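User: Hey, my collaborator sent me this sequence without any context and asked if I could get a structure. I don't really work with proteins. Can you help?
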Amino acid sequence: MSSVLFTPINLRGLEMPNRIVVAPMCQYSAHDGNANDWHLMHLGQFAVGGNGLLFVEATGTEPEGRITPGCVGLWSDENEAALKRVLDFATSYGNTPVGIQLAHAGRKASVDVPWNGGKPLDQSNGAWQTVGPSAEPYADGWHVPEAMTDETLERVRTSFVEAAKRSVRLGFKCIEIHNAHGYLMHQFLSPISNRRNDAYGGSLEGRMKFPLEVFDAVRAVVPDDIPMGVRISATDWVEGGWDLTGSIAYAKELKKRDCDFIDVSSGGNSPHQQIPVGPGYQTHFAADIRRETGLATMAVGKITDPIQAEHIVKTGQADMVALARGMLYDPRWAWHAAETLRAHAAFPPQYQRSHPAMAGEPVPGNPPNPENVKKAAGEK
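Assistant: No problem. I've predicted the 3D structure and written it out in structure-token form, which is a compact way to encode the shape of the chain:
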């Protein structure tokens, strides 16, 4: 039987050759928001890996929206030029469409990079004022965010629109808005972090209002053929916090607004979260949202084995699987999954002689067998 994981899927004008997604993975290696040679290497290796879709890491829409000083941004012409160099490289040599995740860290911004401890910055090492729906810090010892005013809300909303325009101009094939992991949009959704008593707080409808406004504003400037999706945390894993019921209601509202997919993660909004981490521990959330809304979903979280990934897609738990740590550990994951599932993933011609179908082929000075080249590339 043919592999479902390696069948194409269409999202508007984007045809993914398979259901394998390289999830956005923060690298904390940019300078003033500018992508550089590290990102050229990091994204380049996945661009040639035969994946269905590759996302650039969480990309700050304004300087204050970065998690760390090392996070990629897209608020300036300089940021745009730097990212263009990386995207041009990935698309010139790669076989994988590239998308971008637009993000704002809100109250979880202004922290140091993980290998320096990941703690909130202080004034001596470049801290900046954070913002959030309410003046509620993430945890003890964290910055107290400035509760967003009408002016701040408009500034952030506009920053997403402008970053989306830059993303379209750069040629990204897909745009995802980060609403997960305790960052700004998630902060608005969750009663743990949203204590407002105006139109942007209180009820579920109020807490969804700003994230939906941002989605609407971005969708309005993104061409119809470019798919848009949202990454959410399906639950805070905290009693009284954001939960699956809210996530389903939110996904239904997004569907009304022409959202194309929901990328389903969880947690990140409270240090009190209790997460039962294990293989595919978030997949049932993707399945529930898919069943209740009819939206395409991406499952993510401890998906490492090709047979596991095939099962998730084949049984209708999700339409796509997104891998992060598994891809870092094995950038050729899609190639190896194709071998396991007796399917085909794209190989660049320079690497085709590494394909098992070409074992024993002569190398320098002798052309490879044309039939084996076709077989390695998945051609009939």
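In plain terms: Residues 9-346 form a domain with the TIM Barrel fold (CATH 3.20.20.70). You can pass these tokens on to your collaborator as they are.
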